[in-house]
C-alpha cells in the first residue's frame, strides 16, 4: 500500500483547520489503495492556529505538525512540510478549502494507476477575485513565460501531487529565493494537469495584499530569468544610435540652414527621460544584487520551534509537554 503525505501550510487559520481536516479525511478514507498522513505547518500564526493544530495531532494519529518560530511565508511553510513528509507521494493543499478536495481521488488515481509523477491543478476561472487582480496575474504569467524557458501555466495552483522522485529532485534545489510554482515546473517529470473552477475561501480571509502579490511577481521573474538585465543593453544600443542620428541632424541644420542651438524644453525632457531610465535599470540590477546577497548569506529557509516528533509519549498517549528543538 502506498503512503501519501498531505502538506498544509497555515497562517492565522484557526477557523479553517478542523473544517479542512473533517472534509478531507473522509475523502482519503474512501481511497482504499493508500494510507495517509497530514503535516500541518504553522507559519508563525498570531491566532490560536498553533493550539488547534496541536490538539488535532494529539487526537489523531495521522496528524503531524511543524511549528515555525515566526512567519516565514508560504514558500518556506511548503518547503518545511515537504521536508517533513514521509510519503511515497506528497500533496500540497491550502487549508481554506480553495483547493477542492474532491479532486484528490482523481489525482491519486493518475499517479497510482496511470503512472504520472506530477499531477498539478489550475483554476480555469478566477471568479470571485477582483478584476484588477486577475488582470495583473494574467500579465504576470504572460511576462514570465515570454522571458524564461520554464513554462508556468496561467492559473496554476500550488495544489499538486508529486511522486517521491519529483519531491527529492525538488529538495535538491537549495536556493533561498524560492518561487515554488516555477521550481516545480523546472523539475519536470511526466505531468498531468487537472482543471477546476475557482472556489471561494471557506473561512478567514486571504493574507495576500496587493503589494505582497507584486513582490511575489518580482520574485518570480527575478529568480527565473536574467532577461531584464539584457533590456538595459538593448536600450543602451538603441538610445546611442538615436543620439548619433540626432547629432548628424543638428550638424546638418547648423551648416546648411544656419540655425542656432535652441530647444531648452526638449533638452530637459530628454534629460529627465534618461535619468528615469537609468534609475529603473539601476533598480533592476539592484534586484539581482540583493538576491545574490541573500543567497551568499545562506540563512536557513525557516526556523522550527517544535514539531510533533518532539512530543513525549506518555502511556501510549502523547503528552502536551513539548521539547523545544532548535535548528542551527
Ligand atoms: N499561508 C502561509 N503563510 C503565509 C501566507 C499564507 O502559510 O505567510 C497559507 C495560508 O494559511 C493558506 C495558503 O497559504 O493555507 C494560501 O493562503 P491564502 O488563502 O491567504 O492565499 P490565496 O488563496 O488568497 O492565494
Ligand atoms: Mg486561499
Automatic annotation (TrEMBL):
Record keyword Membrane present: yes
SUPFAM superfamilies: Nucleotide-diphospho-sugar transferases
Keyword terms: Cell membrane, Glycosyltransferase, Membrane, Transferase, Transmembrane, Transmembrane helix
Localization (cell): Cell membrane
Membrane topology recorded in Swiss-Prot or TrEMBL: Multi-pass membrane protein
Assigned GO CC terms: plasma membrane
CDD domains recorded: DPM1_like_bac
Gene3D superfamilies cross-referenced by the UniProt entry: Spore Coat Polysaccharide Biosynthesis Protein SpsA, Chain A (3.90.550.10)
Residue ranges crossing the lipid bilayer per the database entry: 231-252, 264-289
Entry keyword Transferase: yes
Domain Glycosyltransferase 2-like: 5-168
Molecular function in Gene Ontology: glycosyltransferase activity
InterPro entries according to UniProt: Glyco_trans_2-like (IPR001173), Glycosyltransferase_2 (IPR050256), Nucleotide-diphossugar_trans (IPR029044)
Main localization, broad class: membrane
Family, per entry: Belongs to the glycosyltransferase 2 family. GtrB subfamily.
Protein name: Glycosyltransferase
Organism from which the protein derives: Bacillus canaveralius
Amino acid at each position: 500500500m502506498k503512503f501519501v503525505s498531505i502538506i498544509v501550510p497555515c497562517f492565522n487559520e484557526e477557523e479553517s483547520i478542523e473544517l479542512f481536516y473533517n472534509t478531507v479525511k473522509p475523502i482519503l478514507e474512501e481511497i482504499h489503495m493508500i494510507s495517509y498522513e497530514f503535516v500541518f505547518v504553522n507559519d508563525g500564526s498570531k491566532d490560536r492556529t498553533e493550539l488547534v493544530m496541536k490538539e488535532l495531532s494529539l487526537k489523531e494519529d495521522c496528524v503531524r505538525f511543524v511549528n515555525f518560530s515566526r512567519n516565514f511565508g508560504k514558500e518556506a511553510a511548503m518547503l518545511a512540510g515537504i521536508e517533513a513528509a514521509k510519503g511515497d507521494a506528497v500533496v500540497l493543499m491550502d487549508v481554506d478549502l480553495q483547493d477542492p478536495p474532491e479532486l484528490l481521488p482523481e489525482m491519486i488515481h493518475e499517479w497510482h494507476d496511470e503512472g504520472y509523477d506530477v499531477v498539478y491543478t489550475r483554476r480555469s476561472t478566477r471568479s470571485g477575485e477582483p478584476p484588477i487582480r486577475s488582470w495583473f496575474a494574467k500579465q504576470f504569467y504572460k511576462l514570465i513565460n515570454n522571458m524564461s524557458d520554464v513554462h508556468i501555466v496561467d492559473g496554476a495552483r500550488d495544489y499538486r501531487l508529486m511522486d517521491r522522485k519529483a519531491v527529492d529532485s525538488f529538495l535538491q534545489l537549495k536556493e533561498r529565493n524560492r518561487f515554488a510554482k516555477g521550481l516545480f515546473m523546472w523539475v519536470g517529470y511526466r505531468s498531468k494537469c487537472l482543471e477546476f473552477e475557482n472556489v471561494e475561501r471557506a473561512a478567514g480571509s486571504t493574507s495576500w495584499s496587493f503589494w505582497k502579490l507584486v513582490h511575489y511577481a518580482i520574485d518570480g521573474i527575478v529568480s527565473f530569468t536574467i532577461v531584464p538585465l539584457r533590456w538595459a543593453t538593448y536600450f543602451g544600443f538603441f538610445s546611442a544610435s538615436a543620439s548619433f542620428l540626432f547629432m548628424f541632424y543638428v550638424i546638418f541644420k547648423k551648416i546648411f540652414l544656419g540655425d542656432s542651438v535652441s530647444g531648452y524644453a526638449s533638452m530637459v525632457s530628454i534629460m529627465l527621460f534618461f535619468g528615469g531610465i537609468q534609475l529603473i535599470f539601476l533598480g533592476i540590477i539592484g534586484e539581482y544584487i540583493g538576491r545574490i546577497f541573500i543567497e551568499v548569506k545562506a540563512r536557513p529557509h525557516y526556523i522550527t520551534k517544535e514539531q510533533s516528533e518532539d512530543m513525549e509519549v506518555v502511556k501510549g498517549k502523547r503528552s502536551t509537554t513539548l521539547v523545544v528543538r532548535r535548528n542551527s
